[in-house]
Amino acid sequence: MTSFLNFPAISPLPSASFRRRSLSPRYAEAPVDIVADIKFERVVVLGGNGFVGSAICKAAISNGIEVVSVSRSARPNIQDSWLDQVTWVTGDVFYLNWDEVLLGATAVVSTIGGFGNEEQMKRINGEANVISVNAAKDFGVPKFVLITVHDYNLPPFVLSCGYFTGKRSAEAELLSKYPNSGVVLRPGLIYGKRNLNGFEVPLDLVGEPLDKIYNAAESFIRPLRSLPASDLLLAPPVNVDDLALAVINAVKDDDFFGIFTIEQIKEAAAKMRAFRY
Q1: Is the distance from CB of 91 to CB of 131 less than 8 angstroms?
Q2: What share of residues in the chain are helix, strand, coil (percent, to 5)?
Q3: What global pTM score does this model have?
Q4: How far apart are the first and last CA of the chain?
Q5: Alpha-carbon span 238 to 264, nearest angstrom
Q6: 3-class DSSP assignment, residue 178
Q7: DSSP H or E run through 159
Q8: At 195, which helix (H) or strand (E)?
Q9: Closest C-alpha to 237, from 269, 202, 191, 270
Q10: pLDDT in 10s for each residue of the chain, 277 residues
Q11: Residue 218 gets which letter from DSSP?
Q12: Cα-flanking dihedrals φ and ψ of residue 259, to 5°?
């Protein structure tokens, strides 16, 4: 597959020259050179036109991060000003020209995942992400963020299906290749306004009330979550915008790595809302 990309050039760090005002007319003004400490960031979002991926792209743009989105159907069918600031690439991770896509990238975020038969789920959730992790590592990208899934306290025979084994194999590969900078986010139900073929599906009409109920009854619900499979009903949902902010926190914070639960995802999002970098 051939892709034609047009990436903006990476500019050197800007410098500014200021003149210091003398306290006495006897001293001449001397120029002072100051180099601004600006951290350049470019994120490649795999699956960037999907429900979660587009929220991540939007949040990244809002936080001053350059974004390259890679997906099989390129730009989403919605109208919003931030879309014009993203470089949209059509491609499949199994056949991608990684040298072009990863040029200048400081982080890769993968939202790749899906359902199907056993082999399809292993390929989509596992192999596709393993390939992406290794491509990023070989190219020298310093950080990788992987969106997977909460295990819901399900019994082992359920967790042995291709969906979960694929996700966990991708996690294992990521944490082995990026032990000090790899990030795994494990959300449960994700809600928000989802776009499907130009139509808006308001998943927040279900997710938001559930989230509020959980927050109000957390002290009662939390002990029950230790029961087998209880999280199918009791795990708190995650707002897609919160998940996106947790990703941005992971991209910007070098001390943010490892596996993060639903509660930790929400804490990371709250941190981003309270303190903008």
Answers
A1: no
A2: 40, 20, 40
A3: 0.81
A4: 38
A5: 11
A6: coil
A7: helix 156-159
A8: strand 193-196
A9: 191
A10: 444 344 444 444 343 333 333 334 443 455 545 444 567 899 999 999 999 999 999 999 999 999 999 999 878 877 889 999 999 999 999 999 999 999 999 999 999 999 999 999 999 999 999 999 999 999 999 999 999 999 998 988 889 999 999 999 999 999 999 999 999 999 999 998 777 666 666 676 676 777 777 777 777 777 777 777 878 788 899 999 999 999 999 999 999 999 999 999 999 999 998 876 4
A11: H
A12: -100, 135
Q: How many Cβ atoms are within 10 Å of 120's Cβ, its own excluded?
A: 14
Q: What are phi and psi of 140, to 5 degrees?
A: 95, 20
Task: Give the tokens for residue 64.
Answer: 């001053």
Quote the tokens at residue 25: 């007319």
Residue with tokens 């997710």: 207
Task: Give the Cβ contact number of residue 45 at 10 Å.
Answer: 27
**What does the chain come to in residues?**
277
Instruction: Judge whether 64 and 46 are in contact, CB under 8 Å.
Output: no
User: Which of 268, 265, 270 lies closest to 235 in space, CA to CA?
Assistant: 265
**Cβ contact 174:146 at 8 Å:** yes
Report the amino acid identity of residue 270: A
Between the CA atoms of 74, 79, 85 and 88, what dihedral angle is there, to the nearest 10 degrees?
Answer: 0
Name the residue with tokens 């941005």: 248
* Residue bearing tokens 């989802």: 194
* Tokens, residue 59: 């949040």
Q: How many CA atoms lie within 13 A of 13 on its CB side?
A: 9
Place of tokens 């639903």: 262
Q: Copy the structure tokens of residue 239.
A: 């707002």
Do 7 and 101 form a contact (C-beta atoms < 8 A)? no
